[in-house]
Design brief:
MFS_dom; MFS_sugar_transport-like; about 375 residues; transmembrane; Growth Hormone, Chain: A; globular; Facilitated trehalose transporter Tret1; transmembrane helix
Length: about 375
């Protein structure tokens, strides 16, 4: 669900609000996890599952009232529908209030769809004169029919076109960046340990009852998401990501070197609180926010879907490998590995993560275009 939701929000938001609104996704993910932790202390797992099952039904009903994104509608040539969608999304405003946005969307959509000019013999409005007089070669004469029926491309041609869009450098460069970012965010130690949280609390000997501690950690994650949403416009995405990954590295390495003393339970608890907070504050949330805006329009749906699928595979591998790695390395040493990955992530993001806060989708797209590709598109 994250990929289409985040992509949708990224397309409908104004640049100044995009970071804040896309962070809502991570906020409600953490709210949902906290709610499940609380339910686990109140009812058995069957009743908790039944309660959770009701929410997707309500979501489906709500989504039927949500319009398509104005950018997609404009790209399909449905300018009036795009205008109405913008009016709805901006709070049922008048057409005049969104006219500037409509004009900008139209220009951006036309740029995104720009292709090479159709050669004369491919143009149904141009035919060859079959009986030229005093001509040594066929002459092209204009024939403008009242209506020109253009055959819709087959699904194979659509797939080939989508693949061509995906394999452009302007898509592949941010795609590989996002994959590495997802790897970093999922290997901070939180995603892999969440299913084993109760056992982990017991093994670290936290001085709090395990089920109560799980609720505390869930609440901390929720508070971190709220803080991210509240501060992303002020601090911007890049500093938040760097600070959070740095603190994840500090916490993970600290857990690896915490000595076994009478106070080690409290020390591990504090370090794990820091790890949980900063992982939820930036490392786990910012990556989805960046993904919503970093891909160009041509190839965005394919790249977002592939990136989200890759994220789930990375999360699966991190979770499934936890027990085996803990058995072979030991719990403290394993968190040292997580801390080392976060340290690598800090260096990687420092050099590779662009600041996208407050920028339009077109500005972000242009920053990832190779110079040669930009020249080719501008001349086509």
């Amino acid at each position: 669900m994250e990929a289409p939701i985040i992509t949708y929000i990224g397309e409908i938001c104004e640049p100044r609000l995009r970071g804040t609104l896309t962070s809502y996704s991570n906020l409600f993910v953490n709210f949902g996890m906290t709610s499940v932790f609380v339910l686990g202390t109140l009812v058995d797992w069957r009743h908790a599952a039944l309660i959770c099952m009701m929410l997707p039904v309500l979501t489906i009903l709500a989504l039927t009232q949500v319009p398509e994104t104005p950018l997609w509608l404009m790209a399909q040539g449905r300018e009036e529908d795009a205008r109405k969608s913008l009016q709805w999304l901006r709070g049922w405003v008048s057409p005049q209030a969104v006219q500037n946005e409509v004009t900008e969307l139209k220009r951006y959509a036309e740029e995104a769809k720009k292709k090479k000019k159709i050669r004369g013999y491919d143009n149904p409005a141009i035919v060859l004169d079959e009986n030229p007089s005093n001509q040594t070669s066929p002459v092209k004469t204009e024939k403008v029919p009242e209506t020109v029926e253009v055959e819709k491309p087959s699904w194979m041609k659509k797939m080939a076109r989508d693949a061509k869009d995906f394999f452009r450098p302007a898509v592949l460069k941010p795609f590989f960046f996002i994959i590495v970012f997802f790897f970093i965010s999922n290997w901070t130690g939180i995603s892999s340990t969440r299913p084993y949280l109760i056992k982990l609390i017991e093994e670290f000997k936290f001085p709090i009852e395990p089920y109560r501690a799980s609720v505390i950690f869930g609440s901390i994650g929720f508070c971190a998401s709220v803080m991210c949403m509240a501060t992303i416009a002020w601090f911007r995405k890049r500093p938040i990501a760097l600070i959070s990954v740095f603190m994840c590295a500090f916490s993970g390495i600290g857990l690896a070197f915490t000595p076994s003393t009478a106070l080690s339970g409290w020390a591990c608890f504090i370090l794990f609180v820091l790890l949980f907070f900063f992982s939820m504050y930036g490392a786990s949330g910012i990556v989805w926010t960046v993904m919503s805006e970093i891909f160009p329009y041509r190839g965005r749906s394919q790249a977002s879907g592939m990136a989200a699928a890759s994220s789930y595979l990375i999360t699966f591998s991190a979770t499934k490998s936890f027990l085996a790695l803990k058995h072979s390395l030991g719990l403290h040493n394993l968190f040292g590995v997580y801390g080392g990955i976060s340290a690598f992530g800090f260096v990687f993001l420092y050099f590779m993560l662009p600041e996208t806060e407050g920028k339009s989708l077109e500005e972000i797209e242009n920053s990832y275009k190779k110079k040669k590709e930009s020249q080719t598109e501008s001349s086509s």
